[in-house]
Amino acid sequence: MAELFNENESYQVTARKWRPRIFEDVTSQEFITKTLRNSIKNERISHAYLFCGPRGVGKTTVARLLAMSLNCLNRKPNGEPCNECVSCKEIINDNRNHPDVFEIDGASNRNIEDVRELKEKVKYGPIRSKFKIFIIDEVHMLTGASFNALLKTLEEPPPYVVFIFATTSPEKVPMTILGRCQKFDFKRLTIDEIRSRLKHIAASEKVKIDEESLFFISKKGDGSMRDAQGLFDISASYCDNNITFEKLKSFFNLAESDVYFRITDLIKAKDGNQLLNYYDELMNKGYDMQTFLDGLTGHFRNLLVSGSTGLADLILESESVKQNYIEYIGRFSQIEIINSLKLILQTEYTFKYSSNQRTLIEALLVELIKFTDTRDITQILKELQDLRSETGGETHKVTSPAKNISSAIKNADINVSYDTIQPPKSDNKDTVMPFESSLRQPDAGQFIDISTASGDLNSHWLSIKDQIKTERKWVYSIIKDTTFEQDDKKNYLIRVDDSTFELVDGYKDYLSGKISKYFGQSLSVNLIKSSEFVTSYSNSDSIIPSENESDNYDKLRSILIRDFNAKEIK
Ligand SMILES: [Zn+2]
Fold first, then answer.
1. Are strands 492-496 and 483-486 parallel, antiparallel or unpaired?
2. I need a labelling partner for 312 at 20 to 30 A (CA). Which of 20, 253, 485, 536 fits?
3. CA 122 – ligand 1 centroid, Å
């Protein structure tokens, strides 16, 4: 690489300099190169080839090799081009002067006039070589009229003409054209394939690179050799031909896996505030939201795999990152990981269609804290059962069983919405969005008396929503269409559209806090789906045990779900 960056010589990027000059050197498309070589050897040449596949996997490279081999003046017996004759040299030199090989970019020559010009060229035989070869890149970009014009040539091609079409979107090529081509599907390159090629290039160019960096760049190439080689060039230049992962980290701002481990650390710590701030930081650094979601999915997938197998064999990461996954085993339960993955995949699905993608991801992160805090309801019930036997079945006589249940669940360390049972505790820092603990004591005249405001709750709700808008924009965006009301039992309800109910539910404590602060008294507020009628909802219902055990179970179950944020795990 030293000479690559020598200012006295013309700079050649790695992708170009290392473009394979014989079929043998093409990374990973063995099936295709072998088939092509055999057909050349046996002189079974097709008049039209279609090379399909993602970008940077070698379509144009193989097209050029095919052109080289077909027109080579000293072709090797194994079908490889000689690289030495005038025809080979001109193609290696980007076809600048080759009279019989034409490279056309379909995107910029897509109109009927361009195709007519091409047809003119087709009319006359090759000047110097055996074949007249047209390589058309991104052929799917041609217009319908152009395809039609081309089709006539393809139907009756002169014997000396060979078309090589390349495309990333074969589905956009008309069937009439497809039917006349010999089609080859190029596959994405694996990380290992890119890695071994880069390793070879680095050694030849005398660029030092550590294994970690080699892996990072190969992975970032995302199946494309060209992209990986581009990153390799930038990295070599930045690191002055001694690429170390430490330097790369600062160059790319961060090592990707570190980002997601940090995210899961914050989820585990239930630190919603830091989590959202960290996400904000990533966005400010120019992190792409789709990339973030993909990365998060991959991370939880890795957690699932390592957690299930106890091994890191199925994880496509460098050895040191694999080790991190092994060390992470046990920090989340399998059910937590599965539930989180489901939620992330759901968000991925809605993400594309959402006009508020950033809010969607923020809501996802906060939800993940709740999700990884969910206990299996049967486990909670079992603990309640144990508690009951500890107290010798005394629960029947307890006048306020709610207290027992709440302390049982508190002992079980789950996230409880205390506000439905007892006043919020100011030291309760564990909840996702802490209840406004700075609840001020009402000064005379400072607060609206809610008992006289009941006829006009919604205009007050508008004022509260305005405050929320300035304080937490993303919360506002999901509650802006909600209404505030009171049922016949004097319970306060926020009516939420069914589709956003789950999202808003994550902010119930926060909303209760805002409302309580506004009216200057601790109020318990519940959510109701807009599809539901107002039912008499009461805190005092239902826990008094009935004689019938299954009735008790059902009541307890619905209360756990309603008031304790429990989720049933099937
Ligand atoms: Zn040659």
1. antiparallel
2. 253
3. 23
Is the separation of the CB atoms in 42 and 35 below 8 Å? no
In 3D space, the residue among 564, 237, 296 whose CA is nearest the CA of residue 412 turns out to be 564
Q: Rounded to the nearest 5°, which phi and psi values hold at 448?
A: -80, 135
Q: How many whole angstroms separate alpha carbon 189 and alpha carbon 57?
A: 7
pTM to 2 decimal places:
0.51
User: From its phi and psi, is residue 425 left (phi > 0), alpha (psi between -120 and 50) or beta?
Assistant: beta
Per-residue pLDDT reduced to its tens digit, 508-541: 888 988 898 888 888 888 898 877 765 444 443 4
Domains of the chain: 29-185 (3.40.50.300), 191-251 (1.10.8.60), 263-371 (1.20.272.10), 393-564 (3.30.300.180)
Ligand 1 center to 85 CA (angstroms): 4
| pLDDT tens-place string over residues 3-35 | 333 333 445 778 888 889 999 999 889 999 999
* Distance in Å, CA 98 to ligand 1 centroid: 13
Find the 83 Cα to ligand 1 centroid distance in Å: 5
Q: Please give the pLDDT value at position 564.
A: 56
CA of 84 to the centre of ligand 1 (A): 5
3-state secondary structure 85-142: CHHHHHHHCCCCCCCCEEEEECCCCCCHHHHHHHHHHHHCCCCCCCCEEEEEECHHHC
- What's the gap between Cα 256 and its chain centre? 12
Contact of 441 with 522, CB cutoff 8 Å: no
Distance from Cα 94 to the centre of ligand 1, integer Å: 14
Cα–Cα distance, 374 to 372 (Å, whole number):
6
102 CA to centre of ligand 1 in angstroms: 17
- Report residue 484 as tokens: 């505030």
Residue type, 21: R
Alpha helices (H) along 124-255 = 144-155, 175-178, 191-204, 211-220, 225-238, 245-251
CA–centroid distance, residue 74 to ligand 1 (Å): 5
* Separation between Cα atoms, residue 85 and residue 92, nearest integer Å: 11
Residue carrying the six token digits 């007050």: 460
The pairs formed by 446-455 with CB atoms below 8 angstroms and a separation of 24 or more are 446/520, 447/518, 447/519, 447/520, 447/521, 448/518, 448/519, 448/520, 449/519, 450/519, 450/521, 450/523, 453/519, 454/486
